[in-house]
Amino acid sequence: MIRTPLRPLARILPARDKGENTTAIERENLRLRHEEMQDQSRQRAESRLLVLGLCFVMAYGVVAARMGLMAVSEPHEPVAAASSSVIAAQRADIVDRNGNLLATNFETHSLYAQPPHMIDPIRAARELADIFPDLEYDKLLRDFTGKRKFLWIKRTLSPEQKQAVFDIGDPGLLFGPREMRLYPNGRLAAHVLGGASFGQEGVSAAEVIGVAGVERQFNGYLTDPDNAGRPLTLSLDLTIQAASEEVLAGGMRLLNAKGATSILMDAHTGEVISVVSLPDFDPNDRPRDLVEGDASDSPLFNRALQGVYELGSTFKIFASAQALELGLVHPDTIVDANGPMRVGGHLIGEFRNKNYGELSVSDVIVRSSNRGTGRLALEIGVTRQKAFLEALGFFDPLPLEVAEARMSHPLLPKRWTDLSTVTISYGHGISTTPMHLAAGYAAIANGGHYVSPTILKQDGPQYGPRVMSERTAAQSRAMLRRVVSDPKGTASFGEVEGYAVAGKTGSADKPKRTGGYYEDKVIATFATLFPVHDPKYVLVVTMDEPSDNSGEKPRRTAGWTAVPVAAEMIRRIAPLLGLRPQVEPAELAGISLIAN
Question: CA torsion 391→216→248→235, rounded to 10°?
Answer without folding.
Answer: -70
